[in-house]
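Batch job 17 of 40 flagged for manual review because the log was empty.
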Amino acid sequence: MSHFAVLCIVPKDEIVENPLANRHEGEDEWHNAYSNQFESFTLEEMLAPYSETDEEYMSIAYAEDEFLNEVLEAYKKQDREKLTTLFDEPLQRMRRWKETSTSYNEETKEFEKPTPAEIDEEMKDHIELVNRIISLDFDMGNSDDRQQLIDLFGGGYETIFENGTFHEVHKYNPNAKWDWWVVGGRWRNVGDNGVIYNLKECIETKEVPMYNTLSWFQLPHCDSKEELEAKLREPKAITKDFKKDKDGKYIEGEDGKYIPESYYTEEELFAKVQVRKQEFFSYLFPEEGWVEKGEMGWFGSSSLDGLPADEREEKINDFHKFNDMLLKKYIDDDRYIGVVVDCHI
């Protein structure tokens, strides 16, 4: 799961300040990250097609539910031994999971594991259904019986029975980019609570040490800038590239970690480079749609992070050239502003 910033280009007369937004200060200021500082119906419409959860934009794929179809075939053959074997693993897995689970007891103020009797009660419906199926006291032709089997043992987001076969129904948005978002959020300090009134700021640059352009997980964890820079001056502080085999796959050492091929020099890490004053991973334009540097992954990583250093730099530069071309169209049109959206995926 990751948070990343998206700059959305929105007509300035179609966004208003949210009077109900958190306006905390001091130690409680962090609450401001969890409410929209500004509101815009247009912004909501622009973001909607990229939702991971909105069914209006979802595609549907079907796959056979292998487990239920095995149960179906064994039931047709009245193979009780096979049915017993099939249900043994999921019932044991369910029991093991419940044995390791805990719940908070309000009276004792402690987390407690369920007793065997409590587990038996929780699994009562599953056990009774399995016993009915194994004893053949179950009607696979009865829709209510089949639905109970689906509800208790179906493996998909949704499972249906059609043309004599159980199918898992998988719903997904092939263009999904986020599962929730908030205006400002972790980037509320950019511009005016996440609103950039002058889009020219988005192509302006500043000078920083090169190490500031590296991903967070490439850098050692330090409590201060001084401590970080001291570590970066040590030999072989940061890996630049890793060794690959003839197929282009990274080679692992005995410890399971990738084997370094080269390291950044101190001169490279501290060299002054130009970066954007306002850097965003993705942009959303009214006409051109969603534009991004790469595919966002978990914990702030992206598809760019797996690239060799030179290739990564080339892709980012190409992205900026293309994106600046799109931005210029809206910079020259003073009807638009930028809204920083904190997206989560």
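Reviewer: the log was empty due to a logging misconfiguration, but the result itself is present. Residues 3-51+176-344 form one domain. Unflagging and moving on to job 18.
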